[in-house]
């Protein structure tokens, strides 16, 4: 069964799976490009949609944001941590998709920042190889070679150097706006926030985890507040943008099949599973300081649990949903060590172990797998275990919610809500 929202697929997006089998499970066709999606024969000149400023204005109005004077303003988008996994896998492909669809202002420039030394050409090539969109290699090369290339290169020589480079490019317009995407470990956030725009607005996008613990999270929030006002800061948990998660509230509360069953009377247990079939692969610098619980359980999986278990919000406004989620978190029993199992993946055959990753400190005890049993002490969920499981370098890549109902003989099939990035599906699973 496919989910509720059927938005028009943008031209750059991969085709969605059309069966109950997620596309990621299907055999990959042999003609895939490096980005993993099928390639077509368009060229950039023909394919890139020109930016329509009136569309941007309408978008701002729709979200209640001030309308920008894009005819006289530039926009610089800076990705800090541009050599990292998140930048390569998600941010640059998403930015490129927006650009490709004509959804960015005409005077936009992208910048990367990292400590790794790389020539501008090597940096552009690295980004080019990760673009998850349907353009062919010829178009990509053309785009990279364009004299007006939007990606000037990678700054590595300090934030001052980055600022100088941006200021030079921005001089063409009276007003310069800046967006900073902090795709870096949280302990570096504060150093990175000193490059605010002088003639336009500044926005800073901050990635989870927001610190390591309560103290560092508080310190981070206070530090950001010293440089930025709250309306300049956008905190991101990209799991909230997944199709199933966006639709979970609608699936539950607008659906007379599910809502009457959503309680301890009918549900025996719930599992939220995050399984990846690849290890850290050079991300030890970030991952080892945080571990799997801070990396995905404390944020992504807990968000899912809260949305799954919350009471019906007064409206679908963000604040109302947030209030209901907070009530779930406040009703949860404190997790003790007896409720948690942790592990670390080891080498098997030709596959490296966690400690074989050269970016991981020798002898590290950081967990790459965790299973946590949680309980919500309220009338709806009293006594129902919520099992959150997450691991890297496991046998298969998938993410799903498994709902085990009480009725039926032992071994009744659970309801599976799949969080696959290519298709949100609801199906019944194998008996357990
Ligand atoms: N990977 C993913 O799919 C997702 C990651 N995230 C979040 O994104 C953030 C980064 O994760 P990820 O990209 O995976 O990690 P990586 O380790 O792959 O990348 C970290 C990046 O930060 C840079 N960096 C590290 N230390 C410093 C420093 N002191 N000063 C400046 N730059 C630094 C690194 O570049 P260099 O060493 O060259 O400086 C690298 O570009 C984390 O907060 C993570 O939670 C969120 C969602 C998904
Ligand atoms: O936040 C993170 O998420 C990714 C998994 O996200 P997905 O959308 O690609 O499934 C995970 O690999 C990474 O460790 C973590 O930081």
Structure description:
The protein is of the alpha/beta class. It folds into two domains: 23-236, Rossmann fold (3-Layer(aba) Sandwich); 241-428, Dihydrodipicolinate Reductase, domain 2. The chain has ten helices and 13 strands. It has helices at 44-47, 53-62, 85-100, 120-128, 137-145, 159-170, 214-227, 243-253, 284-309, 318-330, and strands at 73-80, 108-113, 154-155, 175-182, 202-207, 233-236, 267-275, 340-343, 369-374, 386-391, 398-405, 415-418, 425-428. A seven-stranded mixed beta sheet has the order 8-9-10-7-11-12-13, with helices on one face. Strands 3-2-1-4-5-6 form a six-stranded parallel beta sheet. The chain is globular. NADPH dihydro-nicotinamide-adenine-dinucleotide phosphate binds next to helix 3 and helix 9. Pathway: Carbohydrate degradation; pentose phosphate pathway; D-ribulose 5-phosphate from D-glucose 6-phosphate (oxidative stage): step 1/3. Residues 17-31 have a biased composition (Low complexity). One of its GO terms (biological process) is glucose metabolic process.
Q: Which CATH architecture of the largest domain?
A: 3-Layer(aba) Sandwich
Which structural category fits the helices and strands? alpha/beta
CATH class designation of the largest domain: Alpha Beta
Number of helices: 10
According to DSSP, the number of beta strands is 13
CATH topology of the largest domain: the name is Rossmann fold
Number of domains: 2
Oligomeric description of these chains:
single chain
Provide the low-confidence segments as ranges. 1-46, 145-153
The whole-angstrom Rg is: 23 Å
User: Can you write the helix and strand succession as a string?
Assistant: HHEHEHHEHEEHEHEHHEEEEEE
**Measured distance between first and last alpha carbons:** 21 Å
**Each distinct ligand:** NADPH dihydro-nicotinamide-adenine-dinucleotide phosphate, ligand LXAUTJHC
Anisotropy-based shape: globular
Average residue-wise pLDDT: 79
User: Can you list the strand order of the major beta sheet?
Assistant: 8-9-10-7-11-12-13
Q: Work out the helicity level.
A: 25-40%
In CATH terms, the superfamily of the largest domain is NAD(P)-binding Rossmann-like Domain
Percent strand: 15-25%
Largest sheet properties? 7 strands, mixed
Biased composition (Basic residues): 1-11
InterPro entries: G6P_DH, G6P_DH_AS, G6P_DH_C, G6P_DH_NAD-bd, NAD(P)-bd_dom_sf
Enzyme class: oxidoreductase
Domain Glucose-6-phosphate dehydrogenase NAD-binding: 78-247
